[in-house]
Amino acid sequence: MLIGELARVTGSTARALRHYEQAGLIGSSRAANGYREYDESAAVRVRNIRALLAAGFTLEDVRPFLGCLDHDVLAAPPSAAALRIARERLAVLERRIEAQSAARDRLVAALAAAEKARAGAGTGAAGAGAARAGAGTGPAAAGS
Amino acid sequence: MLIGELARVTGSTARALRHYEQAGLIGSSRAANGYREYDESAAVRVRNIRALLAAGFTLEDVRPFLGCLDHDVLAAPPSAAALRIARERLAVLERRIEAQSAARDRLVAALAAAEKARAGAGTGAAGAGAARAGAGTGPAAAGS
DNA sequence: CTTGACCTTGACGCTGGCGGCAGGGTTGGA
DNA sequence: TCCAACCCTGCCGCCAGCGTCAAGGTCAAG
To answer: Which of A48, A124, B81, B118 is the most interior residue, by most CB within 10 Å?
Structure first.
């Protein structure tokens, strides 16, 4: 399989694949003309890599998983280091989701308050008061 | 308040504040000597901005909230336009949270499968089988 | 032989959020 | 008078994951 086909079947691009190779995540044999050649397992490997990337991993983070990615998924008996990194990434993801959910909740609350203020008073003076009530849970409180 | 003090009270840096200004997120009056001068509300505003950034917003994302950040929190004089933008942002937030939650779920599933495989078989042959079972929800399935 | 679709390496560009340095001006205190 | 501690603008660097030329070589088809 040449690089273009691998790109197609993995939903990536030739450029990305060369990038992964340069990062040491995938390998390739070379044909006589210098073209990269891949076998079937490369497709699986690349899909796994991209899945990890999509999950917020960096290329560096993916490296420890290389042993597993060959076979079929990243569920092969992974090294302790791989597990550790996965958990770290998971924690980061959780924190990010948490932070964004908090932002969302604040925004929802602010919207509700704004609409209530709208219904109550037109000028916004009363609205500012209602708004201030939400301030405790608002971004200003998150000044860590 | 000069930029250094504002940086101190907001836990940021002068460099960052100039960056926000260049991005149009904060303003400043200038003293005769050209120094930036800020009033108290600037600190609140900056803290709000940083809170949003910490929540995964980009500077661009923050821009629509500017009207709210001035006063005290993100509850503004609820103009129809502001409400609309807020709702748009809310939708974007929801989508982002959704995407990241999906990534998290995949990662969790992969971890669970990995640990099951670990507990089940050491060599990897049987482990690969167990792994394959988890593959449906695992990264390999996320080849979009 | 030519065309056109593939492939190669190399190198610069881009986005985001600053850090850091260069090369200055200003101000207050010893 | 001189230093230290501020401030200014401007610009390059960095990380990450590629995109996008540029400038070619290769190969099958017409």
So the answer is: A48
Cβ A127 vs Cβ B78: under 8 Å: yes
pLDDT the model gives residue B86:
67
Q: Transcribe A104-138 into DSSP letters.
A: HHHHHHHHHHHHHHHHH-SSSHHHHHHHHHGGGGS
User: Beta strand pairing status for A29-30 and A36-37?
Assistant: antiparallel
Q: Are residues B10 and B47 in the same domain?
A: yes
Does residue B1 belong to any structural domain of this protein? yes
Contact B100 A52 (CB under 8 A): no
Question: Does the pLDDT of residue B125 top 50, yes or no?
Answer: no
Nucleotides of C under 7 A from a protein CB: 6-9, 16-21, 26-27
pLDDT score, position B120: 61
Cβ atoms of residues A64 and A81 within 8 Å: yes
Q: Are residues B62 and B94 in the same domain?
A: no
- The answer to whether position A131 is within a domain reads no
Q: Quote the number of domains for chain A.
A: 2
- Asked if the C-beta of B9 comes within 8 angstroms of chain A's C-beta atoms, the answer is no
Q: What is the pLDDT, as a whole number, of residue A33?
A: 96
Residues B17 and B83 in one domain: no
CB B68 within 8 A of CB B76: yes
Regarding whether B91 and B71 lie in a shared domain, the answer is: no
Give the structural domain span for A91.
77-121
**A5 and A26 fall within a common domain:** yes
Rounded CA separation A101/B98 (Å): 10
Greater pLDDT, A120 or B112? B112
pTM for this model (two decimals): 0.68
Q: Give the pLDDT of residue B62.
A: 84
Task: Output the pLDDT for position B73.
Answer: 45
